[in-house]
Every structure is written in structure tokens, then in C-alpha cells.
Design goal:
Elements lengths: L5 H7 L4 H8 L3 H8 L6 H11 L16 H44 L7 H19 L2 H17 L1
Helix pairs in contact: 2-3, 5-6
Length: about 160
């Protein structure tokens, strides 16, 4: 049986189990099981932590003074996943901005002067930078983070 303070947090906000289930995209039965002390998956606890706007570790009973390392690891994984999603969404916003602005520049260029295609310069330079950024974000991300971790361990050994 796992102790948690989800019921206390829910009641402090004046929510019913049905409301919490709707906000967290979980079933009412799952909320009931967690509040009764049954084990919950990291995905379930992450969904609840997002609704309560707190780390996963805070969902555990505060009377339980001993924090397990697994709880810290879960919070770190959730924070790392959120940071990764933020990076990806920033990249996609940049990509959409590039497409809209370069499309607008192309229209302006083609409507005003057909002789010189100056819109190709920002299209190519900005597009090239986005390709490098996307390559680094989606292809090299794991390699770069592993390399950083190895280098950090080397520095800590000295």
C-alpha cells in the first residue's frame, strides 16, 4: 500500500473525484484506487502532478519523511521530458514562423520585381540554420547528452 496525499489535495481544491478524473484524463476508478493507497504508474502520477501543478514527489504523503531515490528520479524524468517537449515546440514554432515569413517575402518579391529573387537569401540562410537546429534537436540529441554526461563524470573524477 502506498501512502499519498492526493485526496487531501483534491479536497483542498474542492474537487470531486469525477472532476479530478476529467482534469487529469484518468478514470474515476483510477482516482479511487490511488486515493485508497494502491500503487500508481509514473504516467498516472505525472498526470496528477500536472493537474495539481506540483512535482510528483509532492503527491506522496508528507508524513513520510524518507524520500526514496526513485521519487527523485521520477521527478527528474518528468522535468527532462517537459524540457524536451518545450525544445521541440519552440523548434516547430520557429519552423512555422520561417515558412510564413519566407512565403510572404516570396510573394512580395514576385509581385514587385521578377528580375532579382532576393527572397532566396533569407529563405536559404534562415532555412539552413533551422536545418542545423532540427538536426541537433532530433538526430544528435541523445549523442550530445551522453557525451555531456561522460565529460561531466570525467571532470568529477579529477
Amino acid at each position: 500500500m502506498q501512502q499519498n496525499n492526493i485526496k487531501a489535495l483534491r479536497l483542498a481544491r474542492g474537487w470531486s473525484q469525477e472532476q479530478l478524473a476529467a482534469l487529469s484524463a484518468l478514470s474515476v476508478r483510477t482516482i479511487q484506487r490511488i486515493e485508497s493507497g494502491e500503487q500508481a504508474s509514473i504516467e498516472t502520477m505525472s498526470a496528477l502532478a500536472a493537474v495539481f501543478e506540483c512535482p510528483v514527489a509532492e503527491l506522496m504523503n508528507p508524513a513520510d519523511e524518507q524520500r526514496e531515490p526513485a521519487e527523485d528520479g521520477a521527478d527528474q524524468r518528468v522535468m527532462a521530458a517537459n524540457a524536451r517537449l518545450d525544445e521541440e515546440s519552440r523548434f516547430l514554432r520557429s519552423l512555422c514562423t520561417w515558412a510564413v515569413i519566407c512565403g510572404g517575402l516570396a510573394v512580395i518579391n514576385l509581385l514587385t520585381s521578377h528580375d532579382i529573387l532576393w527572397f532566396l537569401w533569407p529563405l536559404g540562410i534562415w532555412g539552413g540554420l533551422l536545418i542545423v537546429r532540427g538536426f541537433r534537436l532530433f538526430v544528435l540529441h541523445n549523442w550530445l547528452s551522453r557525451r555531456r554526461q561522460i565529460r561531466l563524470q570525467q571532470l568529477l573524477r579529477k
